[in-house]
Specification:
Number of domains: 1
CATH architecture: 2-Layer Sandwich
Number of strands: 4
Oligomer: single chain
Low-confidence stretches: none
CATH topology: 60s Ribosomal Protein L30, Chain: A
Distance between the termini: 12 Å
Number of helices: 5
Length: 96
């Protein structure tokens, strides 16, 4: 993931449009909000399977080209493995 997209993730967090962690991400997926799921490439097998399955079921875009250290730095946290971005305009910029 390039620096511009990382900056957009940080912007989305500051706007309150990011849910961080597996529980919050699953809530976002299941509440039928349109979301982009960002899953760290070094996430554990169980988390990876759970998120891949849910994203597939709800037909949500999934980004996996970022490691947890970089994701954590972009979002200003520690040990972040997964998050959901809920801002449609930012999602278009991140995916497109």
């Amino acid at each position: 993931m390039n620096d511009g997209r990382l900056g957009l993730l940080g912007l989305a967090k500051r706007k309150g449009s990011v849910r961080i962690g597996s529980e919050e991400t699953l809530k976002s997926i299941q509440s039928s909000n349109y979301a982009l799921i960002v899953l760290a490439s070094d996430a554990g097998d169980n988390l990876r399977k759970k998120i891949h399955d849910k994203a597939g079921t709800y037909k949500l875009p999934l980004l996996t080209d970022i490691d947890s250290e970089t994701l954590s730095r972009a979002l200003g946290g520690k040990n972040i493995k997964v998050c959901a971005v809920e801002d449609r305009n930012l999602i278009k910029s991140l995916v497109g």
